[in-house]
Structures
1.
Amino acid sequence: MKFRFLFCFLFVTSILSAQKYATRSGKTSFIGSEETFEQIKAVNNVSTAIVDSSSGDIAILLFISAFDFEISLMQEHFNENYMDSSKYPKATFSGNIQNFSLEELLDSEKDYKILGVLTIRGIEKNVSVSCRLKKISKGLSLKTNFNVSASDFDIKIPKVVRNKISQEINIIAEYDLFEKL
Amino acid sequence: MIFLKNYKRSLLALGTLMISLWFLINYAYKKEVPVSEKVAIFSGEISGFINANIAENSVVVLKASVTAVRNKELVLGSVISVQYLESESQNFLDVEKGDLVLLKGIYLGYDDLFEEYKLINCILLDDE
């Protein structure tokens, strides 16, 4: 009986001590073209992310239709023709920040590697990306910049616009995560 | 006059081209309709909103009590996250926890990470 009580106590305390850092307003942007007359770029300012500081586990979710383009026609095409956002409304990432330790974070940026699974248009792809982490007041800042291939996620680019839209999409994410209460 | 007669066809073609270009540019660069001018497909309270199974990216009007106020966002009834545009910051300045608010925004979808419904680009219609 005593052993069972001790086990339950340890289990509950381990969950409670697993401190989480989160944001609901992460900035994720992408650039999908070379320097052309009208660059294809968009920003999503409502990305959500959670980092478990005890394990380094990270989860990110963003709504495709929340990507904001300067040209609304471009946004329309992006959602309807390329991303099919009514069928696949979300993109997610779940992974682990390798060798993560909250105590070792500094006020200056430090490089880390994240291994995980990126899911776009319902297609899962294992990815390994570099990121920079630093300590901020009551939280941590995460920045990453990496490329994904449109063909990996079955994003079809018509021949007529192939010289304007690049096959490699550059994704930039900047999240300030704060203690999740 | 002679000039106009000689180049009648070319001028007509040029005119048509200019008009087509004007329409094309206007179509491509059309401004997005602000939330305030969009028609809401749902208007009511949280329980009705959840049960209505509303399509993503729909405009909704909600009346609910504020259960938390965070940086540039509110939580309604502990299940709806509300985010507003920078331009609306001044209007949301006086909103406090416990207030009953009436707001209009775009329902983005259900956030599985936070287990809450997400409204964006919200505007405040009333704050009691």
2.
Amino acid sequence: MTEAPAQVAVPEKAELQVERARRASQRAPGEPRNVAWLYILPGLAFYVLFTLAPLAHAVELSFYDWDGLTVGRYVGLANYREAFSDPLVRDSFKHSAELIVFYAAIPVILGLLLTALLTRHPVRGFTFFRTALFLPQMLAGVVVAQAWVWIYASNGPLNELLRTVGLGSLARPWLGDFSWALPAIGGVGTWVTYGLCMVLFIAGAQNIPSSLYDAARVDGAGAMREFFAVTLPGLRNEIVVAFVLTTINALRSFDLIYNTNQGGPGTSTYVPSLYMYQNAFVYNRVGYAAAIAVILAAAIFALAFLVLYLSGRGEER
Amino acid sequence: MHAPTVTRRWLGLCVVVFAAALAGACGGTPGAEQSSVKTEGAVKKSGFDKLGPVTLTIWSYDNQDPGLEPVLKELSANFTKKYPNVKINMVFKDFNSLVNVVPRALASDQGPDITEGNQGYQTDAQLVKARLILPLDPYIKAYGWDDWYTDSTWSIFRWTADGKTFGQGPKWGVAQTGQNVAVFANADKLRSLGFDPENMPTTFDDFQAMLADIRSKLPKDEPVIQFGNNEGYGTIHMYGGIQAAYVDPQSARDWIQHVPGSSYDTPENIQALTAYQKWAQDGYFNSDYNAKKYDQAAADFAKGQGVFWIGGDWDSSIIKSGLGDKAMVMNVPPGDSGTWASIGATSGPWHISAKTKYPDLCAAWLDYIIAAPEAQQLMYSQQQIPSINGAEQPSGDPFLGQVTAAWQQVSQDDGLMLYTDWASPTMYNTLASNFQQLLAGKETPEEMAKAVQADWEKFDKTLG
């Protein structure tokens, strides 16, 4: 190895030797050394074993026609060809796109609104509100699903509320309705994720120097102006992070749908992860399920990169 | 700037790591190593007390409110009294959780010794094809189980060893109870609407006329038929009686078992789908049927909501506990053929794992829970109907007498249509989503018949 001036015999020449060795390796001071590999090895090993290897295995499986039990048959790209012409795959991704509105866009807006409200003036019981609003994020998906099945039931609290305030004509079995089932599930997604956005933004807002607010106030900015001129730009990074996280959540959503509607009524709440699950564990088509999984993973990567790229480009201006 | 170098370095690292992962993950063709079925010796029917400590793990989904769960628990307790060295670990899961997991569980070394599967191409065909369960023929011979079922009932347990031909080949399962989807009625409601519960319709036309009549007399927000279809099987069951009024049960069974030339897209079946769609359009069901679970609908009916509930007789105990002696049962009356038929079969098939160390002991357990007289009495006490021929009759319980009579009426008329979703691995979801669209008026009966037949044909091709 290059960094081994070990057998240096004469002590007074050591400095010189070191200098020579450094020149030989042609490395600027502070440049990464090979020993760095050793430091990242434990983490890397875990990452390879539990993230990359399964991913690679899924890619491999996607080239097979395999029932999960007996010997598989190599079919090349057939699974991908089928997936791209499968109307249910197409519908599933369309539904996912709709869910992004509910899982990402609305929670970010709600989160910003709450941040503006909670940070502008000292609020009594601030910690309580923050915790209470964040709570949905910490509940298990199955629990959330059961609770909302009850809320949405035809004589559940939501419909009772509508009837009490004289909007009985709007009452409906939300989860059993072809056009409302997906928005209803989206609503649950909003409820689950807005707390995360809010907590991110509040934390971010606390890092905005108060001098900026003072300056804005001196310039005569009102609450709205202050929000758009100081808070919003100051939260740029948090917004990007929130968008990426929630968008990924939207695309991966499974537990909520599996525990409420299983894709129904008809196919109105099918999403890629549900269809993938059904192919793998119900239809015994593991290869096809793997192909859908790979397409889904690619879509998630692409969207995440897109969000990061767009935000990064804005920063350069 | 050295930023690009760093990026390139990281890119290089990613490629290397990914390649390594790929190499590590690719164990060649998936599923290449296979377990083989062990060759069988002579069947032992006793002497299990000399085996030393044994734990049998048994999986079941018969826990619907409460269904067979208490029966299985009590019988297992009795069984372990007989063989104190045997411990029985009964595991209950809901239907979907069990059937979606059981193939992989059986393939692992920690799977159940005995499990329920599900007749049809989605589950049992897979278990047979992957050699995960044992053929029961040696036990059928040793114990004389032959006369438990008629030939047509035995056919639902038979598969060729490649899992492709349904209804022929070795027998892979046995079942405990008979399942019949019947019409449950609330006698009080019928009387209050001016109908005589003692004198119910005996033809499908009269039955439909009665439904229409009830609709016109009931308040608008009360359903004629209580319906729960959130899981998607409620509709498959509901349709059975209607289909039976137009379609010959044998042709329905042939279609499920992929007898060549069978079709779902026939004029008779389209007539039946049209009639079913009209039930929905005429407002016979509660509007939230797609959001309500099957057992919840049974429970709501038992609380007095709706005049009828059309569903499985395994939920009889829910109905009885709510309605008491107001509860009554009948089959959907027959169409022009006069044959009493309904959707139904036996309960889930019990299988013995190919990996169990104690197949003979498993067979002894099965023999006990199905054929022992106390087993049959326990089943009746939970309002369940023993499936095997020559089972004792219940006494002193008129409702249970009706449930039993309804089962016997269709099984003796050879009218059990089996479950339509057995016809292919994807059929359950295909039927569930197409029925929901049909009932919502988003699809015509003709379109639905075509869509379902297309699923059948796609799978039929793979059977070669």
